[in-house]
Amino acid sequence: MAKNASPSSSASRPVVPTPEANFDLTALVIPPSLSIEEKLLAIERQLAALPMEVCVVFNAEGQEVLRVQSSDFSVEFTNQQVGQAHGGYMTHNHPAGTGLSWRDVRTAHHLNLLQIRAVSNLEPPVVHVITRPTDGWATQECEQLCVSEFSRIKTKFGMPGIVPEDYPISLKKKINTRLGKFAVTNAGRFEGFFDGIGEQGHL
Questions:
Q1: In this structure, which of 57, 133, 137, 190 has its CB flanked by the most CB atoms within 10 Å?
Q2: Taking Cα atoms as reference points, which of 96, 168, 151, 160 lies closest to residue 128?
Q3: How far apart (Å, rounded) are the C-alpha atoms in residues 92 and 116?
Q4: In sequence order, which residues have a C-beta less than 8 Å from that of residue 66 and are 6 or more positions away?
Q5: pLDDT higher than threshold 80 for residue 183
């Protein structure tokens, strides 16, 4: 299990262990002299091949404030961690090799992130990026668009009368991925919805 300690490069950084942790979060190393973009790329190179999801957050000044490991197939945040992540840069890995999910898109909006990134476990690894627009996130339009698409997906899978909480995990993952692709692909409908839509790069 990871300990509440950190490398000397960022001694004040909180490290959040989970009961199921089998990866030492303190093993992730980020040289403090790098720019924020360089720090993000440095951590993504280390996250790319991990078999579990790990999230790292930097504040607006480029200082690391949080690292969290998933306890299931995605990362869960406490209220305190939500406050730490608000308005920052968030990156994480997708071990299944997928791009940004609908949950990622919603997280970017609700935490008012400057940027959300996901590195996919591919060869070579691919980093997917969404950057907050100059005028801010168009959250209401985004929600309305994806609620409509979710209804269509429910009908397609023949489950219109079942609440999402009762769906099998495999179906939840599939819908989450589909809605993520849909949100990113159709974001251009709204002026200022996203900057850097679908921006990708190889590590």
A1: 57
A2: 96
A3: 8
A4: 13, 14, 16, 55, 56, 57, 81, 84, 85
A5: no
Q: Around Cβ 185, how many Cβ atoms within 10 Å?
A: 11
Write down how long the chain is. 203
Q: Give the CATH number, domain containing residue 122.
A: 3.40.140
User: What does the pLDDT look like over 51-72, one tens digit per residue?
Assistant: 889 999 999 999 999 999 886 6
Distance, in Å, from the CA atom of 165 to the CA atom of 168, rounded to the nearest integer, reads 8
User: Structurally, how many domains does the chain consist of?
Assistant: 1
Is 126 inside any structural domain? yes
Q: Which range is least confidently modeled, 21-35, 79-93, 105-119?
A: 21-35
Distance CA 152, CA 91 (A): 30
Instruction: Decide if 83 is inside a domain.
Output: yes
User: Does residue 64 sit within a domain?
Assistant: yes
Give 12's pLDDT tier (boundaries 50, 70, 90): very low
DSSP string computed for 32-71: TTS-HHHHHHHHHHHHTT-SS-EEEEE-TTS-EEEEEE-S
What is the bridge-based pairing of β-strands 115-120 and 126-131?
antiparallel
Q: Domain range holding 105? A: 8-136+195-202
Give the Cα separation of 189 and 87 in Å (integer). 25
**Residue tagged 């989450």 (tokens):** 176
In the predicted model, is pLDDT for residue 40 greater than 90? yes
- 95 domain residue, yes or no: yes
